[in-house]
Amino acid sequence: MFKSLFGSSPAPSSEPGLLERLKAGIQKTRAGLMEKIEDAVSGRKEIDADVLEELEYALITADIGAKTTAEILELIRQRVDRHQVGDIAELKSLIREHLLEILQATEKPVPLVKDPPAVVMVVGVNGAGKTTSIGKLTRRLQSEGRTVLLCAADTFRAAAIEQLEVWAERTGAGLIRQQPGSDPSAVLFDALQAAKARKVDYVIVDTAGRLHTKTNLMAELEKMRRTAARVIPEAPHEVLLVIEATTGQNGLEQARKFTESSAVTGIILTKLDGTAKGGVVVAISRELNLPIRYVGVGEQLDDLLPFEPENFVASLFD
Ligand code: GDP
Predict the structure, then answer these.
(1) Distance from the CA of 61 to the center of ligand 1, in angstroms?
(2) Residue 31: how many CB atoms within 10 A of its CB?
(3) Contact 65/284 with Cβ under 8 angstroms?
(4) What contacts 193, CB < 8 A, 6 or more positions away?
(5) 184: which of 99, 101, 193, 268 is 20 to 30 A away, CA to CA?
(6) pTM exceeds 0.85
(7) What is the position in ligand 1's atom list of the atom closest to the CA of 304?
(8) Which phi and psi (to 5°) does residue 130 adopt?
(9) Which residue ranges in the chain fall short of pLDDT 50?
(10) What residue ranges in the chain does DSSP mark as E strands?
(11) Whole-number pLDDT of residue 213
């Protein structure tokens, strides 16, 4: 039986090679941020206004967010003894600790699931990497010895169903689908019945991401949640919002719409590999007050890594 939604497997930090993979995944952010921090202080004797300004630039460029950046600068102002530039390592550890604190503040334990199937709804705008992340999550759960059934509840686009079918074939997971245009809640209902009958561990539900009919979409997601709860009272056990790391403030606004209306419980942050602005992990987690559950670091099936605050800051600073 499950200890938690994502299995009773060991903590992510003990997964072999995880830190190295995370480091490689956020290489662009790491390089940019560290280089700028070092540039800001190299050759300086004092932490003066210029140094602070450069540090501010480094943090803002990495998309850590204005609020967090201001707090870090204030901490530096307060703590650096007699305005001497201490060891650069000291400065980095100050930044590191603050980022860790913020990420830890939004951590939430993964819900307990007494009886399978655990139901995971995946939401987010089109193009963010939802389908790819579902494929990767499926592979990850399978590697923990779990069985997975996929539910093609983005019935608005025929292509979305086909795309999910490709991932089902690639991973060998089952797939429940209906005709394009059918009621997403009906597909979900079918999938949950099938999962119970087949004694599957996880149902992962793909949902539509069209934003131009925002209100309808949110109502649709709400209806799906009610449908799930009718079949399995605690379902959906998790609602994961997929956001691109390359997203700016606009993306954050869109994400907020989902969190306001679809009871999101956690975030999958994709495309961390493609950006030097990976500090957005901190901004997103903080602004939405949600834990990051996974990060996407590439297009391959095993490019989805579990997220832990300690690992993330270690991959940036160590
Ligand atoms: P959806 O419309 O939200 O379902 O998005 P898709 O899953 O189709 O992904 C859109 C594009 O982003 C595809 O080309 C994916 O290969 C790519 N993608 C998804 N996740 C990642 C990631 O973590 N890193 C990179 N580099 N590309 C990704």
Answers:
(1) 23
(2) 11
(3) no
(4) 231
(5) 268
(6) yes
(7) 23
(8) -65, -55
(9) 1-3
(10) 118-123, 148-152, 174-176, 202-206, 238-244, 266-270, 292-296, 304-306
(11) 58
Report pLDDT for 121.
97
Nearest to 227 by CA among 116, 121, 114: 121
Per-residue 3-state assignment (H helix, E strand, C coil) for 12-39: HHHCCCHHHHHHHHCHHHHHHHHHHHHH
Q: What angle do CA 132, 59, 79 make, to 5 degrees?
A: 135
Number of neighbouring beta carbons within 10 Å of residue 8: 10
Pocket lined around ligand 1, Cβ cut-off 6 Å: 126-132, 209, 270-271, 273-274, 296-299, 303
Q: Phi, psi at residue 180, to the nearest 5°?
A: -55, 140
Which two three-digit tokens encode residue 154? 């983005």
Retrieve residue 46's tokens.
Answer: 């004092």
The alpha carbon of 268 and the centre of ligand 1 are apart by a number of angstroms equal to 12
313 phi-psi bin (left φ>0, alpha ψ -120 to 50, beta other): alpha
Ligand 1 mean position, distance from CA 298 (Å): 8
Strand 292-296 and strand 304-306: pairing? antiparallel
pLDDT tens track for 61-114? 999 999 999 999 998 888 776 666 667 788 888 899 999 999 999 999 888 888
Torsion, Cα of 255, 256, 260, 263 (10° steps)? 40
Q: Taking the CA of residue 247 as centre, how many other CA atoms within 13 Å lie in the half-sphere pointing to its CB?
A: 27
Cite the DSSP H helix spans in 109-247. Answer: 130-143, 158-171, 184-198, 214-231
Question: Residue 303 corresponds to which amino acid?
Answer: D
Taking the C-alpha atoms of 249, 271, 273 and 75 in order, what is their torsion angle to the nearest 10 degrees?
Answer: 30
Ligand 1 midpoint to CA 128 (Å): 6
* Rounded-to-10 torsion of CA 9, 13, 19, 21: 20
Q: Which two tokens stand for residue 318?
A: 């160590």
